[in-house]
Specification:
about 80 residues; GMP Synthetase, Chain A, domain 3; about 45% helix; alpha+beta
Length: about 80
């Protein structure tokens, strides 16, 4: 399994927790060891989205894939 497939699987693990709050997550791309995501639904406008990204999503991804340098929220 390559890194992109592993990231997709890991995000699928996170998705139910976001769904419980009325939100979701979309993988935009994986480039130069950075994961670019877009939070949608209730998560898109949540005041805690930076905390969710850094303390939950990014820490989980880095734990499972140490080569990841960070997670970037892309607001489109």
């Amino acid at each position: 399994m390559n890194a992109l497939e592993k990231i997709k699987d890991l995000l699928d693990d996170i998705r139910p927790f976001l769904n419980m709050e009325g939100g979701d997550i979309e993988l935009i791309k994986y480039e130069d060891n950075y994961v670019y995501i877009k939070l949608t639904g209730a998560c898109a406008n949540c005041g805690y989205q930076d905390v969710t990204i850094k303390e939950n999503i990014e820490s989980y991804l880095k734990e499972e894939l140490p080569e990841i340098k960070g997670v970037v929220n892309v607001s489109l």
